[in-house]
Amino acid sequence: MSYEYLKFGKEEKDFIAKIEEISGQNIYSCYQCGKCSAGCVFSDKMDITVNQLIHLIQLGQKEKVLKANTHWVCSSCLTCSVRCPREIDVAALMEAVREYSLREDYEKVIISEISKEALDKLPNIALVSNFRKKTG
Amino acid sequence: MVQYSYFPGCNLKTNAKGFEETAIAVSKKLEAELVEMPSWNCCGTVHTLTSDNIMKRIAPIRVLSRSRKHVETLKESPNQVVTLCSMCNSTLKIVNNEVKKDQEILDKINYQLEEDEETYETDMEVKHFLEILRDIVGYEKISEEVVNPLKGLKVSPYYGCMLLHPEEAKIDDEEMPDVLESLVESLGADLVMSPLFKFCCGSYHIVDQEYIVSSQVEKIVEAAKRRGANALVVACPLCAYNIDQQQKAMAKNTVGKSPIPVFYFTQLMAIAMGEPVKINHFQDHFINPEPLLKELGLIGRKKAK
Which residues are CB-neighbours of B92 under 8 A, at least 6 positions away? Predict the structure, then answer.
């Protein structure tokens, strides 16, 4: 058994405050029951599960949160949000993490790198929603 | 004849033309006509889940304001805007709810809309066409109009996420919906229930993370097929594209995967009500439903009257 000492200073608290501000949710409402991850249809594709990501946000571990793919695999289907027993809009937390990285001037999808064939082939509903979720 | 102000949204004019044309045809038959509203814009497709981004909420409000004016020109029209796409439905409904609760956001958005000479007064309701069919038209009237019962078609309803989530936008119970089920039955088709009826198809990940969509679609289609379905019925153009296109891609790669066609609910209605086949735009589908429909004798024979 090994322990990891976590820093919990101003930087961590600022991160939590920002996520709470963007999402409009109280991160400490979560008591880690895991229902969000249990019902998430994308859990198998995430490197850490939704409730684990929330735990990391509660601890203000910005780097670990942003490194995870969890919020980029989330497709905002909102299953977690309608099921959360604490009535947290879990999907809004995922969106807040996405927005946090996008607002730091980081584009997840670079539109100019998508091939012309793909742009012609894909329906506009997919393109618009993708760009709204994955570009700043 | 009641007329409704109808908001098409982007995809109904491009790769889901069959959805729109069949919907308009059956809406006339059922005396709940969908009339396209003038100068609409994209609703944004996905609602922003952020609490602080007002810019992403302007487009839906502009739609609601223009639809309000459109209602004035229609016959017996309630203050409702009707959508066919489930993503439009949820985006418009959520923002409409938000501004009804929060005057401050509404004022800010209205200020932005001044340039377009629009003001929204929160006097509109957003309805999905399925809600109109269930609550206003009624399944009884729908079955009365059926001239070509869909015998032999084993349809599994696939709701996707946006018809049932979130709480403010859902059109039916989020865990046990029955609107598509009842519709399918009233058209004379066999109903096949699948547990993955709202298992997200991967949505917009199709653009940059196709592996997610293909794995989701595989599970959705397998679950329906294992229970005997030979068709899926959907209400979302993005679900339809993902399931349809991914099945075709999978059929190329893997042995023994027989794809099943994906229908919009209005296409099934149009076939059952004896509308011309060409309004379905089956040529836009990746998995052509025509062979199955011909095999079952649902199209391609003289109308039995």
Answer: B7, B43, B60, B63, B64, B81, B83, B126
